[in-house]
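Ligand-bound model needed. phosphoenolpyruvate.
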Amino acid sequence: MTPPLVVGNWKMNGGTETSVELARELVRGLSKPRASAQVALAPPYTALWPVNKVIRKSRIKLAAQNCHWQESGAFTGEISPSMLAEIGCEFVIVGHSERRHIFCESDDMIARKLPAVIRHGMRPILCVGETIEERQSGQTSVVITRQLDSALKGVSEGDIEKVEIAYEPVWAIGTGLNATAEQIRETHERIRNLLVDRFGAAKGEQTRILYGGSVKPDNAGMIAHIDTVNGLLVGGASLTAESFLTIVRSFSQSDRVL
Ligand code: PEP
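Prediction:
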């Protein structure tokens, strides 16, 4: 049975020392009582190795915030999946809206990253989500379908169980706005149906669908209890141990599994 997954995306915040200290606090906080959710941390690249030294004997997993799809070569400033796997990453966030919108990552680039991450034994966390203009013009479903169809085209039926999906409405990321329970339920159902159509019920029902977008301690419980939510991707509120631990524990009460 697959537990819910809660991922802390630290983005470009914190130096090595603050990252290590935060990781230590989280290891302590999660040692007992045992929360039901699986937890992963995505620190900045420079902190991946030192954070891994802190978490490797705990139940917390290491995640990267992005990667390139090539093994090696003349790609200044990029990092390859094999480099991330070598230092202990188990998850890689792919297609985050900040990558799509600030760094102009296309659906095609994102589609190349998924098989590369899987090939190196890691699990991609594929982010999809609509902008406010797309939602207001009734395009949410079209956009999500396009992003999923494109990103998953290189993922085989046998590999879909290695993929996590995160629904992150762009208008909810870092804004303090978060989607209503109805909007989350509806979009997660749409994603689930797409997965089942494409990969069949047995596989499509197993993929975790996380929600992300201004998840905070005071709304995490409500979101965690939506029956179509299988985890959370947390940005700002993952930067302090107290708020992130409260969010992780919001799954302990529901104790829900797929
Ligand atoms: C994110 O970075 O994926 C995110 C959801 O950020 P925040 O929680 O700050 O909105």
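The mean pLDDT is 95.
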